[in-house]
## 1
Amino acid sequence: MLELIGIHKSFNRGTVDEVQVLKGINLKINDGDFVTLVGNNGAGKTTLLNIIAGSLFPDEGKVLIDGVDVTNLPEYKRGRLIGRVFQDPLMGTAPSMTINENMALALKRGKRLGFKWALGGNTKAMIKDSLETLSLGLEERGRAGVGLLSGGQRQAITILMATMAEPKLLLLDEHTAALDPRAASLISELTERIVGETGVAAIMVTHNLSSALSMGNRLIMMEGGMIALDAKGDEKKRLTHEELLAMYV
Amino acid sequence: MQGLIFLTIEQGLAFSVMAIGVYISFRILNFADLSVDGSFPLGAATAASLIAAGVNPYMATLAAFIAGMAAGAVTGLLNTKAHISELLSGILTMTALYSINLRIMGKSNLPLLNERLIITDEPLNAMMVFGIILVVLIVLLYAFFYTEIGLAIRALGSNPKMLISLGINTDGLKVLGLSLSNGLVALSGSLIAQYQGFADVGMGIGTIVIGLASVIIGEMLIGGSGILRSLISVAAGSIIYRMAISLAMRAGMPPTDLKLVTAVGVILILTLPQFKGIAKFKRPVIEPAGKVQKAER
Ligand SMILES: Nc1ncnc2c1ncn2[C@@H]1O[C@H](COP(=O)(O)OP(=O)(O)O)[C@@H](O)[C@H]1O
Ligand SMILES: [Mg+2]
């Protein structure tokens, strides 16, 4: 479903501040794969996700989605295929708008916007059903402004928004790191459930090694701009916390 | 005195269309658009020259709106396609419009003598016509901002990154939002030209500051969230601003000091700590962390 071929990326090229961040990443992700991505700070994980999503373009290499070369496709066009959740819970929602309004826009992912009522037809009912799955009581508060919600609530809504219009790929970048422990575990459970139910291919960056081991069917470790470990299926299941920790340099 | 009050309300109604335009760019789109100083006289020039040429005044007024939309689209395209900064895009359009407005009028001042206008000299006629236009516009805009495209335009000013990650092209929305904003400003210019009986190339100077003053006064005195409430409060802000100005002039303020006084007033509101928060000039894309902490957990 996703294929990265020889991805190189550096910043500040040709200056004294040049940093080579990605040094030839080759990676193939299949339909239904749920990859947990780990690695030291600065290993290039966020840069890799940005290149997949089109927020950054590689210096060399290709990005293919379902066999189609999307290397030069602008970010918003790739947004039709890719759902994203960022570390900052404030990034994924529009604070001046209501929960319903935010979710209504998410339902339009990949579709043309028109002059129809954004909350007309069965849109509200669909949003309510979707919010009910969170069991946070938000289904009764569709008209509440998103700016008034807690970080955990906003992140929960962001995950719904990222997945409700059935994207092909879900990118999660340390999306629980800014939350308190309770909210973080709630969001982790939610992530696991939604990815399981929808079967969407997902890449989740995390610094929590137990989550990285317990969640998903594949674990990738990045180190210095390269893939240092790619454990799939049984190999991943056999991997222990200690072994993983020992691999951090 | 009563006559003066009517006069002030009539002006306030006509100018409130402009203030709503400024509200759309500054508050909804979060875009500091300076092209309105050129699109206001553009509307006046377009309507006045068409009316002087014998065109139906309603068509001329509509043409002013469309001309303003085109001007707003230029600012939007300069910003999104040519990647010129917000401020400079607006300034470029405003500057170019100065020459364009002179070309449209053929001279720097175009009087409208004995022409048929959308208003007549009868008492209360202008108030009624401007009032109807304002109410219709508020209803239409209110509805618009609840359509899919309208919702997306609101989200653009609130969190553009979210829209992009939802696969929505923000460039087109920005151009559309700025078109709408400048169209309204130009429409307001055409109403004022018909009201005062002439179009003048210099009549746009300070439009942006007067618009902002109206937006801020409305937010301070009425405020609240929700699109309908905001639109009404901006319109009310414009009328209140006109009243304050006319009172100040009655008290002896020379009309030439009007823009200085308005600018100083806006500066005071933007800087005095007790007004902060109400009149934040530029909302951050995401609110400061304090707001989230205050919220429930
Ligand atoms: N826009 C940028 N300009 C310069 N250097 C950058 C930029 N973005 C990231 N980097 C550098 O690239 C390296 C990798 O960053 P990142 O992909 O964010 O790592 P990770 O997410 O794995 O912690 C870091 O050294 C970072 O400083
Ligand atoms: Mg990172």
## 2
Amino acid sequence: MKGLTYIKNVNTLQLDSEKCNGCAVCSVVCPHAVFIMKEGKSFVQHKDLCMECGACVMNCPTQAVTVKSGVGCAAGVISGWIRGTEPVCDCGPGGCC
Amino acid sequence: MKQHYIIGQIETPAGIVGQVSTVWTNKDLFSTLKVRWSIGRMDYTVMPGLYAVGNPDKESDVYVSCNFKLSFDHLRRALHGMNGWILVLDTKGINVWCAAGKGTFGTKELAYRIKEHQLEKVVTHKRVIVPQLGATGVSAYKIKEETGCKVVYGPVKACDIPGFVANGYKTLPEMRKIDFTLLERTKLIPVELFYAKYYLIIVPAIFLILAGLHTKGFSVDLSWSNGGRAVINLCIAYLSGCVITPILLPLIPFKRFSLKGVVTGWLMAALLLYFNFLSTNIVEIIAWFLLIGGISSFMAMNFTGASTYTSLSGVQKEMKVFLPLQIGCVALGSMGWIFSRFI
Ligand code: SF4
Ligand code: SF4
């Protein structure tokens, strides 16, 4: 594991290997190489690298992966608090989030 | 309205499609700079729809993009010398990653665009290439169910597309990762700089006015001498959080961004103190440490929004502890500073 890592043991990623059919989509879409495919099934190898983007959940055809996804963005969390909603990303079109 | 990047037209069974240039003009370069510095960002969009690159035919690949012009520009430039189609989704002028998080770069919009632009008439292969960062909003299996089209996830960066194609439409592991290099962090700084918007004027103004206060009333000289120093300190606190911390990010100890911000903030404060810039008065010195630490920490914490590896659960955990602390520090620091005016 190299590069930047964030707070440990906090993200909500879960994988139910019973449900996994081994299609490997999760490992293709994950931007942080969290999953590893072994013997036709997916396993979580680097849990702490997960940024809860939700790409794996969105694309897993068997709902084997779950994560409480959202934008890991302080400004978004604050706007969420103010509006009493989930964190929302309301920054401009460019760089950000 | 004809855009400067449309250089021709291609006829397809689904109608006429604009052909785009794969070379950036000065105009493109200029607008890229403008967008980085938040000038006129709002109207930086491309009309959603189908575009042609080179001379594509029924067999050519279809690349899905968003209608944020910068992303579109990078894609067309990456496709230089190739033949293909670009399907631009309406993401309200927002980049793929943000739009996917919001759901505008999503399953519904993609399915709608595939049908609306009659992709089945334009190409025979029933396959679209979606940038990997769009996967947060797009569900490949649902697109297949709804439109019959297969989603193939392409690389994170458009410039890896030729490599991806050469590799038989499979991304190599390094094409799938989002890293957060110095260059990428630096590019985000202009956006961060304008985070506080009009507070950037109001807060220094308040400090300038307050600086003039002393036990016998108000003095303009004091306002400039003390206030000027205060404004410089404040600016340094702000820059420490939104410029220095992002640049030095991996080098600063701690994982929490707010702590990283405190580290750089206090380092800067210590430097100011060393050069006799902070104050000679112990109350004011402590007040400045609180203020600079608090502001720098808050701004650094905000950079979680721009970073590419922070999870929502982590950010929430960090904020629950640090936001009250930051507010406390700034409040106490401000009070201490005002108090020090009168001793
Ligand atoms: S996407 Fe789901 S089913 Fe496919 S490998 Fe990953 S966990 Fe298994
Ligand atoms: S939520 Fe995102 S970062 Fe986390 S495992 Fe899934 S795809 Fe990877």
